[in-house]
Amino acid sequence: MDKKAHDTLSFRLADMLLRLNNGETLNPQQLAQNYKVSVRSIQRDLNERLGVLPLKQEQGLYRLESFYLGKLNLKDIKNFATLAGVSGLFPKLDTDFIRAILDTTISQAYDIKGQYHEDVSELKPVFQLLQTAILQHQTVKFLYKGTEHHVEPYKLIHHRGCWYLAAGHQGLLKAYKLALLQNLHTQDIFTPNQTLLTQVNQEESIWFGVKKQEVILTVNKQVAAHFKRRPLIPAQQIVKELADGSLIVSSHISHELQILPIVRYWIPHIKILSPDSLREALQQSLKEFTSTY
Questions:
Q1: pTM of this prediction?
Q2: The domain 3-77 is classified under which CATH number: 3.50.50.60, 3.20.20.370, 3.40.30.10, 1.10.10.10?
């Protein structure tokens, strides 16, 4: 599934979840017109992708059972919409696992910060061990790139296609790629560090503890609507809309990899105004790329 198709599906599922959670009765024919898809697609959404929820069907209409109304918060809806829209996002996408994710307690162990996904079908034992460790505040020990680490686990984060463990190590918050963890096992009970927990919940990326720098960009009028519709760069703020329809946009990043791939994707419609070092890094990467052809 490409990014555009996934974004459209996740938006549709999130919207339907929000309506169901608010007690609305859904008409597949009307939804098909609203989302500009076939009735068959809507029925698949309701019967398969959202089928783990206690939906009641009467005369072709769907509603959430009364005992489940209002149970989902906005973060639950966002995460489940992403989960239901991408079959390979989690290690085993079965009914029990999805229902567990929707459980308020278990969902505290997870966060989704990206759209693409890696194949984690072999990592189910890792997910289960870390989920338990996070919720029961157990330290974990593992080998990572040949070095032993003893850490305090705080969150499992899906960021730009890969799963990471956000954990405290020697008083600092760090991110570890799940696929690289070896000899993983739990150890002692620890008291969560509230400062680190707040940091992991507020940070938009996995570059924890790195000082952010402001980036100023121009976005021309041909693509301005995309940036006005939703944030496409980290911590995006529209500073000014110019008379010709172009935008001045600011971003705050911890690492150049958070923004350079996005800028390259939108060339020639987007330019870096500052800082000079980031603009020079972009120019150098383009020179290296063109020199190979």
A1: 0.51
A2: 1.10.10.10
